[in-house]
């Protein structure tokens, strides 16, 4: 799909690409890196405060990339820049380039609605709308022009199956989503992001507000999404990054300085034989 063109309802409800039948199986292995997000010299500031300085990083299609690093090093800012959530922050200024599927997302022709259809976001705290489970899923579809009830129902069922929630909620779709447990709410939010058939999912600490059991269920779900979607996940849980990610990007911030990318590579490399001493110190717990 051309990211500069407005999204059409047909593109969302067409059968090509995207949805699976039945429970989601683990996707294809991430072994042939092809950049889908290219970040070049990204600098980001909020007024006088520079949060990121000249970050250059490729994110590979179908892989899980974990963003790790201490608090305040700019991980969330980096994530927010990719689907232009930073547009909503009045004093946020961005320099450099971000290309998604080869298209610069900050050109004047770039269509933010199309970008956000392609690049979904899941937040730290589950954020279901205070509406029924069914309405949580139909609302984004209606906003993007999918209005036929039968299509909405089919897509809703499929995404609930994909996140392993269908059996748990199929008999209460018209009850409030706020009555779901925290882990169920987070899986519903992931399902809601999937309704629009994104290619990329940005996840900002999606398990950190959940109890260990629910966190394990969501983590397992993220692993199964690998290969079907390109995932960029911020996590402070290094063990989790090691378990689920194919690649890791280590960010660091010196006092009163801007966040920088220190090292990027295969997860195994970053965790077992990092090149930079700072990465080694952070992984070993002696810094950060
Ligand atoms: N809206 C904002 N206005 C001003 N400064 C901000 C804003 N959002 C973030 N910052 C600052 O930018 C820097 C980077 O913040 P960011 O949230 O991106 O870091 P982070 O690595 O995700 O941190 P954490 O792991 O604690 O979530 C921090 O110094 C933060 O205080």
Automatic annotation (TrEMBL):
<keyword id="KW-0378">Hydrolase</keyword>
<protein>
    <submittedName>
        <fullName>Phosphate transporter subunit ATP-binding component of ABC superfamily</fullName>
        <ecNumber>3.6.3.27</ecNumber>
    </submittedName>
</protein>
<dbReference type="InterPro" id="IPR017871">
    <property type="entry name" value="ABC_transporter-like_CS"/>
</dbReference>
<dbReference type="Pfam" id="PF00005">
    <property type="entry name" value="ABC_tran"/>
</dbReference>
<dbReference type="InterPro" id="IPR027417">
    <property type="entry name" value="P-loop_NTPase"/>
</dbReference>
<dbReference type="GO" id="GO:0016020">
    <property type="term" value="C:membrane"/>
</dbReference>
<dbReference type="InterPro" id="IPR003439">
    <property type="entry name" value="ABC_transporter-like_ATP-bd"/>
</dbReference>
<dbReference type="GO" id="GO:0005524">
    <property type="term" value="F:ATP binding"/>
</dbReference>
<keyword id="KW-0067">ATP-binding</keyword>
<dbReference type="GO" id="GO:0005315">
    <property type="term" value="F:phosphate transmembrane transporter activity"/>
</dbReference>
<feature type="domain" description="ABC transporter">
    <location>
        <begin position="37"/>
        <end position="283"/>
    </location>
</feature>
<keyword id="KW-0813">Transport</keyword>
<keyword id="KW-0547">Nucleotide-binding</keyword>
<dbReference type="GO" id="GO:0035435">
    <property type="term" value="P:phosphate ion transmembrane transport"/>
</dbReference>
<dbReference type="InterPro" id="IPR003593">
    <property type="entry name" value="AAA+_ATPase"/>
</dbReference>
<dbReference type="InterPro" id="IPR005670">
    <property type="entry name" value="PstB-like"/>
</dbReference>
<dbReference type="GO" id="GO:0016887">
    <property type="term" value="F:ATP hydrolysis activity"/>
</dbReference>
<keyword id="KW-0472">Membrane</keyword>
<keyword id="KW-0592">Phosphate transport</keyword>
<keyword id="KW-1003">Cell membrane</keyword>
């Amino acid at each position: 799909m051309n990211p500069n063109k407005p999204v059409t309802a047909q593109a969302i409800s067409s059968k090509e690409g995207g949805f699976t039948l039945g429970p989601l199986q683990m996707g294809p292995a991430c072994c042939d890196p092809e950049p889908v997000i290219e970040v070049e010299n990204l600098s980001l500031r909020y007024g006088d405060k520079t949060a990121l300085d000249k970050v250059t990083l490729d994110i590979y299609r179908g892989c899980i990339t974990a963003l790790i690093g201490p608090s305040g090093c700019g991980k969330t800012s980096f994530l927010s820049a990719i689907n232009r959530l930073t547009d909503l922050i009045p004093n946020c200024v961005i320099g450099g380039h971000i290309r998604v599927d080869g298209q610069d997302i900050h050109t004047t022709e770039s269509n933010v609605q199309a970008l956000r259809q392609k690049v979904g976001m899941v937040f730290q705290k589950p954020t279901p709308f205070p509406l029924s489970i069914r309405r949580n899923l139909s609302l984004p579809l209606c906003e993007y022009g999918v209005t036929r009830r039968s299509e909405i129902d089919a897509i809703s069922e499929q995404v609930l199956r994909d996140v392993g929630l269908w059996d748990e909620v199929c008999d209460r779709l018209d009850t409030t989503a706020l009555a779901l447990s925290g882990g169920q709410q987070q899986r519903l939010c992931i399902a809601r992001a999937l309704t629009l058939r994104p290619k990329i999912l940005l996840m900002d600490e999606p398990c950190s507000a959940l109890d260990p059991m629910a966190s394990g269920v969501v983590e397992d779900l993220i692993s199964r999404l690998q290969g079907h979607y390109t995932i960029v996940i911020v996590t402070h849980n290094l063990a989790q990054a090691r378990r689920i990610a194919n690649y890791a990007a280590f960010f660091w911030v010196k006092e009163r300085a801007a966040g920088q990318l220190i090292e990027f590579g295969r997860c195994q490399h970053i965790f077992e034989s990092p090149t930079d001493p700072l990465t080694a110190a952070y992984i070993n717990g002696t810094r950060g």
